[in-house]
Amino acid sequence: MMLNDHAFSVAPMMDWTDRHCRYFHRRMTARARLYTEMVVADAAIHGDRNMLMGSDPSEGPVALQLGGAEPGKLAEAARIGEGFGYDEINLNVGCPSDRVQSGTFGACLMRTPELVAECVAAMARAASVPITVKCRIGVDDQDPEESLFSLVDNCAAAGVETFIVHARKAWLQGLSPKQNRDVPPLDYGLVKRLKEERPRLRVILNGGLKTVEEAKSHLGAVDGAMLGRAAYQTPRLLLDVDREIFGDEGPARRIEEIVVEMEAYIRRVSSDGVRPHHVLRHMQGLAHGLPGARAWRRMLTEKGAATDVGALARAHASLRAAIEAASSTAAALDERLVAAC
Length: 341
Ligand SMILES: Cc1cc2nc3c(=O)[nH]c(=O)nc-3n(C[C@H](O)[C@H](O)[C@H](O)COP(=O)(O)O)c2cc1C
What we know:
Blueprint lengths: L7 E3 L8 H10 L4 E8 H6 L2 H5 L8 E6 L3 H13 L4 E6 L4 H5 L10 H14 L4 E5 L8 H14 L4 E5 L21 H10 L4 E5 L5 H7 L5 E4 L1 H5 L7 H4 L10 H16 L5 H5 L12 H9 L9 H19 L5 H6 L1
Parallel strand pairs: 1-2, 1-8, 2-3, 3-4, 4-5, 5-6, 6-7, 7-8
Helix pairs in contact: 4-6, 6-7, 14-15
C-alpha cells in the first residue's frame, strides 16, 4: 500500500469542518489530513482573517480550501493562507451551490480548465506550500472522460501534482447542492483510470466512501481516500485511521481520553468567548452505534448544553452507564464497546 500523507483525509465541508471540528477530529487521528471549510478568496483578503482562517497549532496537517476564479485574488488569498501556517492550499472546483455558481467558481470551473490553470499557477507563484485541486468528473452534459482529463492536464501543466476527485458529475441545473452529493452516479473506475494514465500525479478518491475499510480497499488503485459525511457523522471511524491506513502501532485512543481533552478545550475556548455549543455540535456522532447514543446526542444538544462547560462530562458519564448496563444484560454485546469507552 502506498503511504503518503494524503492516504486518508477528511473532506472540506462548509459549516462543518470549522476549527473546533478539526480539533476534535485531530484527537482521534494524528495522521489524517484535514481540510478547512471553503474560504472565498475575497473574504480571505477583505474579511476577518482570524475568524476565517485561524486554527489551533495542534490541528496540523491541515489544508486550507479556497474558492474563487480570479488568479490575482486567489494568489493573494493563498499568500495569506500560507501565513496562517496551512500545509497545503486547495482550490475548490467541485462545489455546486447557488452562491458558488453566481460567482462563477466551484464546479462551474470544470468548463474553463485554462482559467483554473491560470488560477493555480498564480497561487503557486504566491505561496510555497503545495497547491492542490478538488474537482468533480464533469458538469451537466460534459463527457467526463474529456472534462476530467482536460482539467487535470491543464492544472498539471501549471504545476499541480495532487488532485482530489469527487467521483461524480455536478448537475448545475435542477439539483440542490445536497442532491448533487448523492444523485449523479459515482464513477470510481474513471478516477482509477486517471491514476493509471497519469501515474506521476497523486490522485485521491472522494465520494460515497463510508468506512475506513472501504477507503483502504481503494488504496493501490489511487493514492488516497477522502471521506466527508461518514467522517463527520460517525467520527469514531477516525480512531482506526492511524493503524489501519498508516500502519501505526499501539492501541486506538479511547473515547474517555478524547472527552477529557475536548472538555479542556471547551474550557479554554470558552474563556475566549466561544460557546460550548459551537464545539459540542460536532461531537454528536461520537456515540453513534453505541448503547446510550440517543441520550448522548440529546445531552449535547439540549438548550442548557449550549453554555454549559460541564455538559460533555455528564453526557460521557451517561454513555458509560448505558454501555455498562447493556454489557451486563446482554452477554452478546461486543466487549470492544466497553473497552472503547
Ligand atoms: C455539509 C457539506 C458541506 C460541504 N462543503 C464543501 C466545501 O466547502 N468545499 C468542497 O470542496 N466540498 C464541500 N462538500 C463536499 C465534500 O467535500 C465531499 O466532496 C462530498 O460530501 C462527497 O464526499 P462524501 O460522500 O464522503 O461525503 C460539502 C459536503 C457537505 C456534506
